[in-house]
Structure formats: C-alpha cells, structure tokens
Design a protein that fits this description.
The structure is a single chain. By secondary structure, the protein is α+β, with helices and mostly antiparallel strands. It contains 13 helices and 18 strands. Strands 7, 8, 9, 10, 11 and 12 form a six-stranded antiparallel β-sheet that branches. A hairpin with a 4-residue loop joins strand 7 and strand 8. Helix 2 packs antiparallel against helix 3. It is elongated and about 80 Å long. The chain binds guanosine-5'-diphosphate and manganese (II) ion.
Length: about 375
Amino acid sequence: MKLMEFQAKSLFSRYGIPVPGGTMVESVEGALEAAEKIGLPVVVKAQVMTGGRGKAGGVKLASTRDEVRTHASAILGMDIKGYEVKRLLVDPAVKIARELYVGITMDRGRGCPVLMVSGEGGVDIEEVARKTPEKISIVPVDPVMGLQMYQARRAAFEVFAEKKKAMSAAKVMLQLWSCFADCDCSLAEINPLAELADGRIEALDAKIVLDDNALFRHPDLAEMRIPQPDELKELRAKEKGLSYVGLDGNIGCMVNGAGLAMATMDLVKHLGGKPANFLDIGGSSNPQKVIDAMELLLSDPGVEVIFINVFGGITRCDDVASGLVEAVQKTRLDLPLVVRLTGTNEDEGRRILADAGIEATTEMRRGAELALQRASGGGSA
Ligand code: GDP
Ligand code: MN
C-alpha cells in the first residue's frame, strides 16, 4: 500500500526527518486558510499516488492570496496520469540551492535493502538511473545490522563536500532507515532532499510504499489507506473471497488455485498474449463465487475474452460446470469464452457445459491458444 505525500511526510517527521510542515486541504477555501496560517509564499501540491506531479503542473508556487486561489482551483480536479486530484498539500515555500535524491528500497538482485543516494535529485531520477547510473551510489544494507553510521557518512560525503552538511544528510539517511525498517516499507524515498539557500536540508517530497503482508503489525498505518480506484476492485474481490490483481492485458483469466493461476498467466504470456488479471477463485465451486468472479472480469473494459482454467481436485468439475452455466446466464455473457476443464468428474462437467452450448477442452495449452485466437488482435496461435 502506498501513502500520499502528506501522509509520508507526517511519518517522516515522527522519525525526525526535517519536512516543511504544511497542511493537507480538500478545497480552495481550505488552501487559502492554510496559506494564511503558514504565511506566504507557499507551494500548492497535488496529492495523488503517482510521481511526476511537478511536470504535470500539479506543483505550483504561490506568492499571493490570488495565486493560492488560482493554483488551488486549477490543481483540484486535475487528472494526473489517470488519478483525479482531490487533496492538496500546502507547504511553506523554501529557497532551494540544490536537489538531491535519497531512497531506500528492497533490492531483489542483491537480496537485501539498499540505500541509494545521488547528487542529481529532483524530478527525473529514473532518467539519471537509465543514462548515468554511475551518478547514483548504491549501498547494500545488512537487514539485521541495519544501516551503519559509517555507511551513511560515506554516502553523504559523496554528495556534500562540506562536513556540516554531510553530517546532517547522514543523519537523515539513518532516520530514513529507521522509518523503512520500523514500518516494514518496501520503499522510502526523498526526492528531492533539498539543500536550502540557508544551508539546512529538508525533505521536500516523500514517497512511502508499505509491505501489505506486514500491515497487521501496523494498525495505525493500515488505517491511513486511501483506496484508489484500482485497489477498490481488489478489496471488493477480497471481501467476496477471491484474490484478484488487475493487469493491463485483454485475456480475462479465472482459475482455481493460486499456483495454477500463476501458471495460466505465464502460459498466456509465453504464447504472446496478455493476461488482463490474476484471479484465483479458490477451491470452492460455489456458483455465486463463479458469478462474482465473472462480474469482476466483465467490469474490466480491457477484457476481450474469458479464459477459465479449472483443475478439479477436491473441487468437482460438475459443480464448477453448473456454477459456470449459471454465471454465464446471469451475467448475460457476450464475450468469447474458453473453458479448460479437467480432473474429478470431468466427463460429467463437460456434459453439463455441452448441454448449455459451452465447449470445453482438457488441455491447458489448447485453452490458452484458443483464448489468444479469440481475443481481437491477440496474436495468431
Ligand atoms: P513530483 O514531481 O511528483 O516528484 O513532486 P515534487 O514534490 O518532487 O515537486 C517537484 C519539484 O517542485 C521539486 O523537485 C522542486 O523543484 C519543486 N518544489 C517543491 N517544493 C518546493 C518549494 O518549497 N520551493 C521551491 N522553490 N520549489 C519546490
Ligand atoms: Mn519528487
């Protein structure tokens, strides 16, 4: 789960990381009040769960009341990469001398957390990473020992020549580590960490991604969740006992069992197709679950074909087939459907499907090939 900037900044401040100390508001009036309280000039910032807000016009400096009003009304309601702006952060504006990058994330390749530091911070760290990776120092961190003082200092001296500044940057890195480790983050990032005109350093942006699997240890953080449209779907699925993860392909997959669901996605991908989702309907063959799953798939406008892959073990194929027939009728399915059904009571299951005019294959590969064929523009399997 991701936090928004204003939430991430409040978490940072718990760990002593210097942040501007702004106010989150949800209206133009609120922005004006906040600016009044903070004192002009202020920075008006779109609060959405995506980066690149600056480039999209979602971060504006306001030196007068009128500018606060103009910027706040322009940014509220703005669409940034598909996210509607409903909240603003009004921060006191600061004079920036230099923008740096400091982040901590899990490095799968190295199998440990890493501290990343660069003197080339600001809006385009991905570009720096691609074109001039040597400008980013990477420091592997022992997960048991944690980030050590000497590591933080060494990294800080790579971006600050002056001792005093380097020491305060090293302190921020250690505080960021405490935050990352305590809160079970998978990413804690400051971009930019700004060196201000008066020599202080301050975190002007904040990004935190929390590990969902550790959220049970942090009920206070779990409460901060602001569900996003795509997440809402996953949460609703969860309430219905389905595990669903939306993807951007066109082949809607419905599978029993997480392992088979993964294998189904792999196979679709391997054949040159694009899965629209991961969906595990679990072991039960309860028709309602199949209906719920079907509705979930149909709510994704990108889905062009439905591929159902069932291996009947404890789940019996005849039960699944009955559920499926009911689901197809209830949802008035008008998309092409491909069913692969095999395992316990498969003959009976296929007979039930055939009676309803639904053909089924027993071969997973054959099923995936058919699904690709029936999705428009889905390759030539
Ligand atoms: P992002 O584009 O989504 O990463 O949003 P950021 O919060 O990083 O803001 C983008 C840029 O706005 C920063 O890199 C800064 O250059 C600038 N910015 C943010 N806060 C301030 C501020 O208080 N004063 C000034 N002058 N610029 C700021
Ligand atoms: Mn940023």
